[in-house]
Amino acid sequence: MKVIREPKVYLVGRQTVDEAGIERFLQDHGATWETDTSIGAERLAEAAGRVCYMSFGKGRKTNAEYMNNILASAHGSVLEHAVWNFLICGVSRSFTHELIRHRAGWGYSQLSQRYVDESECDFIEPDAIASDPELHTVWLESVRQSHEAYVKLVDGLARKFADEPSATLRRKLARQAARSVLPNATETKIFVTANARALRHFVELRANEHAEVEIRAVAIQMLRILQGESHSMFGDYQIVKYRDGTEIATTEHRKV
Question: Does residue 20 contact residue 45 with C-beta atoms inside 8 Å?
């Protein structure tokens, strides 16, 4: 049994632009447009914004200038066209229960406890417990008992369903019932797709001092990745130390 105390976020997908398609649109409408960014999400968000006013070739020549005006004017709908894909690992079921409350602009695919054998699963220990030896001992014993119960239940349920001819169904029937004793601390993995507007909303809610510590850590990791991906859309956030030693993010452009 492994105890995990730090989440990991992997960026696994980003957008590309069909330049020929954009060029055909511009030619059909007698317009020209040049932008200085090669980042697909930034190009698409800028193109979307310019369509609203057919302002191709007019004013604000750089993408940074254009997107800064978008943020300042809270014209957030154009950010919904910029999308990234993430894999989040080393997080608890408690974390994903909170994460999936973010619905608009998000897509999720999570590890299934009905199909995946959790007899060798890992667990996420909160820092507040890990830092206290006495509390850590209580937590560790509770997790061990739950895990041992899961393993025993899987074995017993496998015998109970021995007459089921499908091996796959036997395993699923056993695991889906046995998982009921696993704690919220059980480690999980989740594939996430979200657009820039939804991600900004997530950062503002979850990377602040009022958010739970685990989801705050994930939000800060995602923000750092996004700032490297698109400074035009996420560069306005400042990551600072909070009084409890963790990090939070602030911006003057809230609720875009």
Answer: no
